[in-house]
Specification:
Blueprint (H helix, E strand, L loop, with lengths): L3 H23 L15 H12 L6 H13 L1 H9 L3 H9 L4 H14 L4 H17 L6 H16 L2 H9 L13 H18 L5 H13 L4 H11 L4 H4 L2 H21 L9 H10 L5 H11 L3 H10 L1 H17 L4 H8 L1
Length: 340
């Protein structure tokens, strides 16, 4: 769809993803990436980088130091990328037999992916197949870190995302039935992969991810991923009617939760907002229209409140209603709206 509302929605989501990446790079300090007592002086970093390029063994502590240095100083990313053989050394440690070194090497690659598009492409080319293979690791920590690494490299730009998709990154959809950190990391990676790939994401990969989403719980994160996928040209031919029905069944819950928790404004990272935008991107045929009408007619008052009270949501609701009106032979819903 090339209409202005859809363009505005895509632009809003693009800005949101860029903001998230900035937070990941500049503010995030989770336990997997930071050890306070480890020295990350430039001298130490250069020594570790030089060791990696010579095929010499490096310790877990040295890898952790490099990982922290990549987070603390963007210049370290350039140092690693510009030192021939260092990426190959990290891949060597990632594919080794010591799970502790594997996790730290994956952490280094994860933080490298937070650089620009050049960094994302470099990580995808050198380590993409190994990161994707490690998603099946029995070590949850390693699998989680590799999923984050794939997400960061994919989020750096379309070229890196395309390389990772060709290397099998769509298998991340199979991790949506996991729990906790692994599921969160998989969704994070798929959000970046889907956003950067756009219509270039292969329809079979789209179908695989949508199937996994159907089996997953509806959360803010999964709703964001579904909305991004709904912008794909093949989305309407791939999504199933039962999946649409599931979204509509959950919509009243999201409506009530939003009304109870949000006073005047709506966060851009809002489950209800993503659900409405996804529904607005659907092609409304007779069967789907009947599902919409049956659901929305029961919550006309809530829809009217969204239009009046929430500026951030009103445009998306209007786009959805406009889509319904243009494709509907049933005027019951609109008569109900006019009566309020």
């Amino acid at each position: 769809m090339e209409d202005q509302p859809v363009t505005a929605i895509r632009e809003t989501t693009r800005n949101l993803l860029k903001l998230k990446r900035r937070f990941n790079r500049d503010e995030e300090s989770d336990s997997r990436r930071c050890v306070p007592d480890t020295s990350t002086s430039q001298k130490n970093i250069k020594a570790i980088v030089n060791t990696l390029k010579t095929k010499s063994s490096v310790s877990v502590s040295e890898l952790r130091t490099l990982k922290n240095g990549l987070m603390e100083d963007p210049n370290t990313i350039e140092l690693v990328l510009n030192t021939h053989g260092t990426l190959r050394g990290l891949v060597r440690e990632l594919t080794g037999n010591d799970v502790r070194k594997q996790c730290e090497a994956a952490g280094c690659l994860c933080n490298l992916g937070l650089g620009d598009s050049k960094a994302g492409v470099a990580v995808a080319k050198a380590a993409g197949p190994y990161l994707v293979a490690a998603l099946d690791s029995l070590s949850v920590e390693l699998a989680v870190t590799c999923a984050w690494a794939v997400g960061n490299a994919a989020g750096a730009g379309p070229r890196g995302a395309a390389l990772l998709a060709a290397q099998g990154a769509a298998k991340l959809g199979g991790l949506l039935d996991a729990k906790g950190e692994l599921k969160d990391a998989a969704i994070y990676a798929l959000v970046h992969l889907g956003f950067q790939m756009g219509d270039e994401l292969r329809s079979e990969h789209l179908a695989k991810i949508l199937e996994a989403l159907y089996k997953s719980d509806i959360t803010t994160a999964t709703s964001q991923l579904l909305f991004i996928l709904s912008c794909h040209n093949e989305f309407n031919s791939v999504i199933s009617e039962v999946h649409i029905h599931k979204i509509l069944q959950n919509l009243p819950i999201s409506l009530q939760s939003h009304i109870n928790s949000c006073e005047k404004s709506c966060s851009m990272n809002c489950k209800l907002l993503y659900q409405i935008r996804t529904l607005a991107n659907l092609n409304i045929d007779d069967k789907v229209n009947e599902l919409f009408t049956n659901c929305l007619c029961q919550h006309v008052g809530s829809l009217k409140m969204l239009l009046v009270k929430y500026d951030d949501l009103s445009k998306s609701v209007l786009w959805l209603l406009g889509n319904l009106y243009n494709n509907s032979s049933n005027s019951v819903l609109f008569n109900e709206l006019l009566l309020l």
